[in-house]
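Running co-folding for magnesium ion.
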Amino acid sequence: ISFNSARFMVSAPRLEDCPPDTGAEVAFAGRSNAGKSSALNAITANSKLARTSKTPGRTRLINFFSLNRENARLVDLPGYGYAKVSRDMKDDWQKHLGHYLNDRRCLRGLVLVMDIRHPLTDFDQMMVEWCEHNKLPLMILATKADKLKFGQAKNSMLDIARRLENFTCVQHLLMFSSTSKRGVDECRAALIDWLEA
Ligand code: GTP
Ligand code: MG
């Protein structure tokens, strides 16, 4: 699998609009503004692939990207915890996200993207517990590491590792930065592992 040839496929507002549930998929989840779309762009070395924004709530649909290997895809999920939308819209997102996570058979693993300065929010914790319960492999990207001094970033990683030590679903915990590209190679290797299994 080469990530450089990733292409945008489709934006799905609902589960019914997703590509056929075959092959292998890895989805990127996390708080709004955590850096999911930026991480996808760093991994695919294509800054124009997934839309990023300073305004939280940019990614509102489930976006699918195809890779060069047939039926292998990466998925950019809408961020959770975005406060500035109406209650109804929020419920809607969570419902669609829930449907996707619960029903998608081809989902091989979840990449949970969190800002290294604000790790493991309540919602992140819920996602970890959901993966544990559903036996779905989890990779954690502690991103925006370039915003901290290395010592501080290291401490944050130790703190995250300690809080997650009892979760067997956590297969990878990476210090990451879409800006400096730290962690990108390790992340690619882990994704290949999941998608080719
Ligand atoms: P939603 O689609 O709203 O859920 O957000 P998202 O998680 O996709 O975040 P996005 O990738 O759009 O990034 C949000 C903001 O953080 C943008 O201004 C990015 O430029 C910035 N950002 C993302 N990753 C990094 C990083 O590794 N380092 C730094 N310094 N900034 C980053
Ligand atoms: Mg996004």
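Result summary
The chain has a mean pLDDT of 91.
The chain has one domain: 7-196.
Job closed.
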